[in-house]
Amino acid sequence: MIYRAAEKTIETERLMLRLFTEADAPEVSLLCNNYALYKSTLNLPYPYTLDCALSWISTHPQNFEDNRLYEFAITDKISGQLYGAIGLSNRSQHQNGEMAYWIGEPYWGNGYGTEAAQAIIEFAFQEKNYHRVYAQYFLSNPASGKIMEKCGMSYEGTLKNHVNKNGTFEDIIFYGLINPQH
Asked: How confident is the model over 43-52, as a mean pLDDT?
């Protein structure tokens, strides 16, 4: 993982994590306006319009500057193709943050989520000196849990019937990882 603070980019073997721009909004809208993605995420609206994408992207620069939330576009470092998004909250008082991500359905199964998540964990520990990173997923979305496991995160618990998604109560599974340097 190579973090370039001035550009706010993270480079991995195959990916470039960078800030979203307004030019990404049509592709974000296209990828997110997908019921399969919506049903496995907590806060993604559906349908997902261009205005949703523009509104979401507009919050990123200030959140990043204020060290509240770091949100990156997951892109191919050669072609620039947008694959998804990954974010990391900053709870500075507790030196931890929650990682969250989505990958557009056409790109599922290629390891992009795992590669981006590993990079964000390194960013959290090496660049931001977090003590801990945590993440959560719906029990009905085990692929997200596999990403967490591949990144070395450990199962921490299940919140039974914790959220109501589309009229169905969903279990939320929590994973976490402590900075090995702490």
From this structure: 93
- pTM for the whole structure: 0.95
Tokens of 175: 């994973």
73/92 Cα distance (integer angstroms): 23
Local confidence band at 42 (pLDDT 50, 70, 90 cut-offs): confident
* 8 Å CB contact between 91 and 131: no
Structure token pair of residue 180? 């090995």
Within 10 A of 120 (CB to CB), how many other CB atoms are there? 26
- In angstroms, the CA 79 to CA 173 distance is 34
